[in-house]
Amino acid sequence: MTSDTGYAQKRLSRFTLNDFIHDSRSVGVLLLLCTILSLIITNLPAIGTMYNNFWSTEIPLFHSLHLPHNVLHFINDFLMAFFFFQVGMEIKRESIIGELSSPSRMMLPMVSALSGVIFPAIIFLTIAKGTLYQVGWAIPTATDIAFSLGILSLLGKAVPHIFKVFLTALAIIDDLCAILIIAFFYGSQPNYIWLLAVVACIALILLVVKFMKSKFRRPLYLLLGVAMWYCMFQSGIHATFAGVLLSALLPVNRIPVYEKKLSIPVNFFIIPLFALANTSIFINAGAISNLSSKLSLGIILGLLIGKPLGISLAVFLMAKLRLIKMKSRSEWTKFIGVGILAGIGFTMSIFVSTLAFGDNAQLQDTAKLSVLLASGLAMISGFVWLKIVTRNAKEETTDETESID
Fold it and tell me: Bridge-partner residues for 193, per DSSP?
């Protein structure tokens, strides 16, 4: 009996771990835990400074090889290229065989995503225009797909599947916008010789993908991908864009293979490591007082007001123009709730913060702290909004059923 119980417990343990890895909420939970852990360690009197300095530790020989030469830069410039490769595969798959594969499917999330990028940027620039903060205009334009979908998943079947599909498609298009913004607005002056080298790498990758059939195709594809990343890094365009280009060159039928291999290392190593490294923020009286600055207000209001306003307005106008059908008032209020959840910026917003204020640690910390605060408020308010809306919709349906009976 004891052995059977022990065997059952082992099976339960294995199932729980497997369930956690494949649960859509797990990445968001892990990110949240890593963020809290990093903030706590950073602000411990004994080891906080040492922990913070660790991320600036120089990696031997990397500087002389013109590579990202400290731990933080290595994570943000090299490891995050794998994250962008994963995002790029998702965008390609959805645009060819998924939710973005036809104009009718793409129209609502695309218009909503673009509106959800433009409005936060306008709000931020209205507040910060003419200051040294205005370079951070893109910080509140991003949506964190892991967190937003994770919070939506907590509501279970109360939220119809169509809204999860809408948020997924919207977040994917939002990621594409963020990638393009990073590539073209947060790089340095382009070096055209290195850009030509990038083009040469792309041409070679295309030849390998199209004509090479041997077992060496995959390692050669990856080797050329690394070479393209290096050329991109030297070119002045942000190196993570190489991950997106590499995914665009990948045949659609190979996407599941690479997604399977990258899913666990990206979701459970690279992204948590990114969170640990980029949320090492000292929270003191100065940091808290900076939350009233124009930089902080622009980010917080951009995410909390700009995102839901832009997305909701796009949905409203498309319904008014009869480009989409709105079945009921409760459906409209659910779209607003999804718009609020889209204000969870986190990963992309923090990433843009590091690029916008790379030479100023204090402004970086203020921007990151503002992103964390706004994202936390968006999580709570979006969840509560949808909880109330879905409960009211259920009660209305019950009342209608009873009155018919």
Answer: none
Instruction: Encode pLDDT of 112-136 as tens digits.
Output: 999 999 999 999 999 999 999 999 9
DSSP calls for 184-228: HHSS-S--HHHHHHHHHHHHHHHHHHHH--STTHHHHHHHHHHHH
Assess contact for 44 and 282: CB atoms under 8 A: no
Helix, strand, coil percentages for the chain (3-state, nearest 5): 80, 0, 20
Residue 278 neighbours by CB under 8 Å, 6+ apart? 72, 75, 76, 350, 351, 354, 368
Q: Which of 248, 251, 116 is nearest to 170 (CA)?
A: 116
**Cα distance between residue 24 and residue 14, in whole Å:** 18
List pLDDT tens digits, range 94-116: 888 876 777 777 888 899 999 99
212: left (phi over 0), alpha (psi -120 to 50) or beta: beta
Mind listing the pLDDT tens digit for each residue in 32-91? 899 999 999 999 998 999 999 999 999 998 988 889 989 999 999 999 999 889 888 888
